[in-house]
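Recap slide: NAD-dependent oxidoreductase, sequence and predicted structure.
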Amino acid sequence: MQGKVLIVTGALGALGKVVAETALARGARVAGIDHAPSQISAMPERIEIGGVDLSDAAQAKTAVEAAARHFGGLDALVNIAGGFAFETVGDGDVKTWQRMHALNVLTALNASQAALPHLAASKAGRIVNIGAMGALQAGSGMGPYAASKAGVHRLTEALASEWKGKVTVNAVLPSIIDTKANRADMPKADFAKWVTPQELAEVILFLASDAASGVTGALIPVGGRV
């Protein structure tokens, strides 16, 4: 990752922080974009752009352009920003489906559209999306979330086909991620079966690297032990 310029959306979340820190440790320059306020001042190797609603195309474009200006270009976009809701279809609210679509599909779509011209100008443009293993077959209560993540899968495939030869586009499909929030929500689960943020970061950064030049349109499950 030495010298690569990455945008990580959702960079202040549990997974985003690990991906950003790991990329920095390997010599990358990282722009973190998040809905939460920025926590650090801009530095030559790192910038945080906070207070951004990536479900709004104009805000996404403004943030991506700011990152590209700061570093003089972009090499990779990692779309981690998103959300989760557990709600059955029969007892649910259409607003939940709309919120999941906005948080998971529109954030990735808007960031990707804004970044693509810059990524195409790179010698090794990369997009890595975060799908979900749970979107391959939705269980009870998983409808809104699984439908939105299935949309991320289809977005990944369409972009990969449209930009083949210019930008690689892949998605990582985690099982349950071992975070403090998930442990609090599922205290009786076997945490050893969950995938860690660091394990996911390794796969994400491989797909963002030069070594993954031959991989595009892939949906890669990670953490199949559950």
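The mean pLDDT is 95.
The beta strands are 5-9, 29-33, 46-49, 76-79, 125-130, 167-174, 219-222.
(End of recap.)
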